[in-house]
UniProtKB/TrEMBL annotation:
It comes from Ananas comosus. It is a multi-pass membrane protein. Keywords: Endosome, Membrane, Signal, Transmembrane, Transmembrane helix. GO terms for biological process: protein localization to membrane. The lineage of its organism: Eukaryota, Viridiplantae, Streptophyta, Embryophyta, Tracheophyta. This is Transmembrane 9 superfamily member. InterPro entries: EMP70 (IPR004240). The keyword Nucleotidyltransferase does not apply. It comes from the Eukaryota. Belongs to the nonaspanin (TM9SF) (TC 9.A.2) family.
Amino acid sequence: MEISRLRGLLPWIIALAMVVSAAGPAAAFYLPGVAPADFQKKDMLFVKVNKLSSIKTQLPYSYYSLPYCHPDTIVDSAENLGEVLRGDRIENSPYVFQMREPQMCQIVCKITPNDKEAKELKEKIEDEYRVNMILDNLPLVVPIKRLDQDSAIVYQHGFHVGVKGQYSGSKEEKYFIHNHLSFLVKYHKDTQTELARIVGFEVKPFSEWNGNKTRLSTCDPHAKRSVMNSDSPQEVEANKDIIFTYDVEFEESAIKWASRWDTYLLMTDDQIHWFSIVTL
């Protein structure tokens, strides 16, 4: 699949190389898909998913290689040549927002992993795989406070599929999945119009077992939902239901579109690996 995509883009690759070689040192140009996008209030925002990545194994996998919620039809959603050359596998997702319209307690789907799927989830958690998403060409990040630097904020690229932990009073390690996502979309608003541009895309992942309760605990914005302090995190077990939910908030920001990539200078990762995606 990846080879056929590259063959189809070969003329564009050659053309791009010619443009780059002809450009002077100070020349600048946009690649398709990276120009600023203006959004009105309530415009639809479509979150895309990228490959799963791990600096522990260095081998990427398709997002849908795990039993995550998926749209009725999964389509390739790469928008520019750079994404293809990096080996990205960008696809659509069931996560859809409306610009500047907060949403709480959105249910994505319920899955019941079989033995094979539960095993795959546990393996990805064991190998510290992260889920990568994209909104308006901006990769998703997780804000982290560094206590050793006066609570400075750094960012992690993507969120972990889950974590290993222990129930209180037990020494047996279990695997817990992050099944609730609390998104934050930062935007810069034009002072003359109602148009706005997306300048930040953050998430805080949580693990929460909802059991058979009528009201989902993830509907409570004040609930403590991290694995470390949750009374009932969502354990990965074969034939045990997992409900995926999310909420999204919007925050106006002074950051302008041209500076929105500055966040990525504060990333925590100390390695970047360039590998073609594993064909599944």
